[in-house]
Amino acid sequence: MEQLAAKLSERFGGARAFFCNSGAESVEAALKWARKATGRSEFVALDGSFHGRTFGALSVTGQPAKRAAFEPLVPGAKFGLEHVGPETAAILLEPVQGEGGVHPLPAGMLAHARALANEHGALLILDEVQTGVGRTGEFFAWQREGVQPDAVTLAKGLANGLPIGALLVADSAPEGFEPGDHASTFGGNPVACAAACAVVDAIDEDLLAHVRRVSKIFADGLGETRGAGLLLAVDIDRPAQEVVEAALANGLVIGSAGPTTLRLTPPLTITEEEADLGIDRLRETLRS
Ligand code: PLP
């Protein structure tokens, strides 16, 4: 756990780490930390966002259909940066909205959120559960725009399939948690941490350059794509689920992100030949 914390701190540019077992848990930790660190109660997230399915994470998820059956949720969540004010503990953003349909934040929005957070004394937390650990062609997606957050959540790819989540808090950000405030029995266990250490070691500049190169192969081969690195989406003119199933029958594993949107999240280690093969198979599937 200490080795992993040190590796992640180095990648972040100086951060403390709390380890848990999933993305939703990392968001819960972030929300509790932000309230404790600021003494404020409100969170500002975005419409269309997705932060997980536990009560806190669901409360800041900007998709009413996912929340409706479980209300009342944790109070204090608002959607839209226009709500940032003196009671805002934290602004919570995904650099690329993943579950919401693979929508990168509009240009300049991250910098705007940073400026708003500074102006109002709020924290800026980036949910990099989906975009982190090399997925967008940088270790953290915020490095693409050079906007430093106060905290980052990670999970999904961090231990390459073993359950782990992490909250990283910048050394420059307020302390917040004291012993006893937050904990997890299995969080930071040696097996998950050993796997995550191996993953972090594997994500070097060569692999990140490879991700950016293969991303371009997909974008050139498929035409209208959006996203970043190897988190890509293609809008199609028919139900995505049909195409996902037809592609699978054709030996190609893809996902959907909305009724008529395909989501492509290949392994970061996919070769250029495999990417070409995947593009051919997807084109074939879309033609039939
Ligand atoms: N945050 C983001 C941005 C996600 O994409 C997800 C899962 O898709 C989560 C949080 C929740 O992660 P988990 O499913 O590990 O709880």
How do the helices and strands line up, and which of them pair or pack?
Blueprint: H1 2-12, E1 15-20, H2 23-38, E2 42-45, H3 55-59, H4 64-67, E3 77-79, E4 88-93, E5 96-97, E6 103-104, H5 109-120, E7 123-127, E8 151-154, E9 165-170, H6 190-202, H7 205-222, E10 225-228, E11 231-235, H8 240-249, E12 255-256, E13 261-264, H9 272-287
Parallel strand pairs: 2-3, 2-4, 4-7, 7-8
Antiparallel strand pairs: 1-9, 5-6, 8-9, 10-11, 11-13, 12-13
Helix pairs in contact: 1-6, 7-9
Bound molecules: pyridoxal-5'-phosphate.
Task: Describe this protein's structure.
The protein is α/β, with parallel strands linked by helices. The chain folds into 2 domains: 2-202, Type I PLP-dependent aspartate aminotransferase-like (Major domain) (Aspartate Aminotransferase, domain 2); 205-287, Alpha-Beta Complex (Aspartate Aminotransferase, domain 1). 36% of the residues lie in helices and 18% in strands. A 7-stranded mixed sheet has the order 1-9-8-7-4-2-3, with helices on both faces. The protein has a 4-stranded antiparallel sheet with strand order 10-11-13-12, with helices on one face. Strands 5-6 form a two-stranded antiparallel sheet. The N and C termini lie far apart (49 Å). The structure holds pyridoxal-5'-phosphate. Residues 22-24, 27, 50-52, 94, 98-99, 127, 129-130, 155 line the site of pyridoxal-5'-phosphate.
